[in-house]
Amino acid sequence: MKKNTICLWFDQGAHEAASFYAATFPESEVTAVHLAPGDYPSGKEGDVLTVEFTVLGIPCLGLNAGPQFEHSEAFSFQIATDNQEETDRYWNAIVGNGGQESQCGWCKDRWGLSWQITPRVRTDAMAAGGGEAQRAFEAMMPMRKIDVAAIEHMDRRSIEIVPEDGADRRPAPEPGEGEIRVEVEYLSVEQVQAGVQNPFRRLRIS
């Protein structure tokens, strides 16, 4: 056993859950199954008591210990994905196997364990801070499964420059040409999801 192992309490589904995780995620496998040497409060001698397994290389121990304690969102696995295909694959595997959708990339498997299926484009945008993080956050909030294209759309930098006085469009001023005031107005999440191409409504310069 590793120095640090995550112990997950199940009713009686540890072996089934571990086998599902091993079949769903890479670098995941069931490494050992241990039977109870005698009767115990939630089982009898010979029942599966503990299961050793890994999830994406993380060592875990499933304990079949009865219904007294249930999983909650206080603990979750966060799985980083590189694209929409990978996001869809994990999400659909969990939800389609008796799981349940939640919000903002969260879902729950049939055993009650919570998972965050999290595209890197979202975490990168949040880590960048500022307007990029704000736009990614606003795009994410109404989502269940994360839509990678919508997050990427909110991060584009194409802009329309409209002078404050309503005159013809003009190019952005060159550095050092004097003090300017810039106001940026973004599209709403609903407009982005409706397919509006420009993530900014306008940028005013005066």
Task: Give an account of the 3D structure.
The structure is a single chain. About 25% of the residues lie in helices and about 30% in strands. A four-stranded mixed sheet has the order 1-4-3-2. The protein has a four-stranded mixed sheet with strand order 5-8-7-6. A hairpin with a 2-residue loop joins strand 3 and strand 4. Helix 3 crosses helix 4. It is elongated, with a radius of gyration of 24 Å. The C terminus is likely disordered.
List keywords for this structure.
206 residues, alpha/beta, four-stranded mixed sheet, disordered C terminus
Number of helices: 6
Radius of gyration: 24 Å
Secondary structure: number of strands = 11
**Mean pLDDT level:** 84
Percentage beta strand? 25-35%
Low-confidence stretches: 157-163, 178-184, 198-206
Class from secondary-structure proportions: alpha/beta
Helical residue percent band: 25-40%
How many angstroms separate the termini? 66 Å
Q: What overall form do the CA principal axes indicate? A: elongated
Major sheet description: 4 strands, mixed
**What topology, given as strand order, has the largest sheet?**
1-4-3-2
Order of helices and strands: EHEEEEHEEEHHHEEHE
